[in-house]
Amino acid sequence: MRPAFLEIDLTAIRGNIRAIQRVVGPETAIAAVVKANAYGHGAAEVSRAALEAGATLLCVAIVDEGIELREAGLDAPILVFGPPNADEADDALAHDLISFVGEPCHAEIVAASARRAGRPARVHVKLDTGMGRHGARPGVARVLADELAGSPEIEVAGVFTHFAEASEPDLKWTGHQFRQFQTVSREFGAGKPGGPIRHVCNSVGLLRMPEARLDMVRPGAILYGFNCGFDPDLMPEGIRPVATLRSAVGAVKVVEAGQPVGYGLTWHAPRDSRIAVLSLGYADGYPRALSGNSDVLIGGRRCPLAGRVSMDALTVDVTDAGPVGIGDEVVLIGAQGDEEITIEEIARRAGTIGQEITSRLSRRLPRVFSGRSDD
Question: How much is the pTM?
Answer without folding.
Answer: 0.94
